[in-house]
Amino acid sequence: MQEQQLARVQEIAASYGFDQSNLIAILQEIQADAKYLSEEALTLVAKLLGVSTAKVYSVATFYENFSLEAKGRHIIKVCAGTACHVRKSQPIYDAIAAHLELSGKNKTSADGMFTLETVACLGACGLAPVMTVDGEVYAKMTPDAALELLQDIRAKEGAAT
Known about the structure:
By secondary structure, the protein is α+β, with helices and mostly antiparallel strands. 47% of the residues lie in helices and 11% in strands.
């Protein structure tokens, strides 16, 4: 992890008074900055708060919203809830995974642009199937529409499709 990122971790912990009762909030803010929790960040948090590294890891792994793996610049979430599943959200996920050449546990594209995840529900059942990109909701998606959206994002960033 870069020195400036570690300095940012220290700054975040300091903003909470190095108080271990604020561990979750500290981890949330670190993740918001870096998009994941690195081993170095977790170790530094433990040291700064005066708690064991095991305690910090146990909190980071207990909550599903924390990620210990680096994520892409754009986070894609495909809803797998009942309404979306019935309206064929799985083929959307499969098309995106194939397009990004993801396999096994790998959820981030090789170029680091996209991370693909599923979520239990996005709360937009009437718009199913739904996906989000960086928190923006896209309703009544199809595999083709999803791939077109990714190509549009790449084009806006000047990347090859």
